[in-house]
Amino acid sequence: MEHTYFITGFPGFIATRLLNGLRKKYPSASFYLLVLKQEMELASKSIKANDANIHLIEGDITQVDLGIPQTKMDELKERVTHFIHLAALYDLTIPYTPAYACNVQGTEHIIQLVKKCKQMKRFCYFSTAYVSGNEKGIVVEDRLIKPVSFRNHYEHTKYLAEQKVQAIKDHIPVTIIRPGIIVGDSKSGETTKFDGPYFMMKFLKRFAYLPVPYIGKTESRIHLVPVDFIINASIFLMHDIRGISKTYHLVSPDSPTVEEAYRLISHELNKKEPSWYLPRIAAESILSISFISKWLGVPKEVLSYFTHEAHYDTSQLEHDLHGTDIEFPQFEQFIKPVVQYFKENAHNHTLKRY
User: Where in the numbering of this chain does the Thioester reductase (TE) domain appear (predicted)?
Assistant: First the structure.
């Protein structure tokens, strides 16, 4: 039987790249792509009109049965072999209620459909490494441990959603992907949104003609992950037998410290390195002033990731990718095209996220 995929979150960045990767590897596969009503026009433009193997389905994960008509639901239950759940609210500033509705209740609605699919070979759920919240020390892949606290509602609701997925992995073949902070392609730098580390680039851009500051003193590491590594590793792990009932931290075992990354990004962006320290408490006070935060292009919530004292275990990832040609690119290599893409597209408002 040929693979039939159901993918949520289209036409988002990861879902689009994943679709392209799957089509390249499995050209005869069929795809059902769940699309919000307001994004249907954009989704339609990204799909060739004569592509009979791709089916766009208007729906919403926050609704029971995803808002899909019963006849279409019956078709999905009979055909789908691989279910990939990407749709979520990723905004660090999002209030709790919409985050819970999308990330938690939405995932529960997805699970209910997965349970009814008769040909199910794998359910791949995209979580995040930051379900660890404010946890310190080593965070292992094979357990989901509730941290003392979370830094934002995104982390909290993704933790609650992963709890629901973990609960079914003894009955359904599940692969859980926990990416770090996703950036553009490691070779072209291409991305569809400037958030996460791109806020750092916006801040540094404002200091192009001024002495550049570090934001506080920290020995924490930052876990930036190129999108092409996410796609290649995920496609392998969601199909190989090694990935069944496992959770993977998709981060580099050699992630740079925040200061190392900040220094390299500053050099690539402005050809200068930071020369003084702005205390984090001062930075938080400055970013608490809305118009300054907007002018700098940095939400205050980002600063909590500058002093993140967790160390992410990647032993399962390294073991199960051993013998493949999938390797995590060196930070010093992929950050150059990532920053270059930002420099060339910094004024593109369609990529702006704050």
Answer: 7-233
Q: Are 110 and 84 in contact (CB under 8 A)?
A: no
Tokens of 33: 């792509």
Number of residues written out for the chain: 354
For the whole prediction, is pTM greater than 0.85? yes
Where does the chain show beta strands of DSSP type E? 4-7, 30-35, 54-58, 82-85, 122-126, 137-139, 174-179, 181-183, 213-215, 224-226, 246-250, 276-278, 310-312
Determine the Cα angle at 39 with ends 35 and 43, to 5°.
Answer: 70
Both tokens of 330, joined, read 């060196």
Best CA proximity match to 224, nearest among 190, 179, 171: 179
CA distance 113 to 133: 29
The full set of domains in the chain, from first to last, is: 4-182+224-250 (3.40.50.720), 185-221+255-309+330-351 (no CATH)
Q: Are 263 and 274 in contact (CB under 8 A)?
A: yes
- Say if residues 321 and 234 touch (Cβ distance below 8 Å): no
Residue 329's identity, in one-letter code, is P
Instruction: Find the helix packing angle between 153-166 and 106-116, rounded to 10°.
Output: 20
Beta bridge partners of 179: 250
Determine contact, residues 338/319, Cβ cutoff 8 Å. no
Q: Phi/psi class of residue 65: alpha, beta or left (left: φ > 0; alpha: ψ in -120 to 50)?
A: left
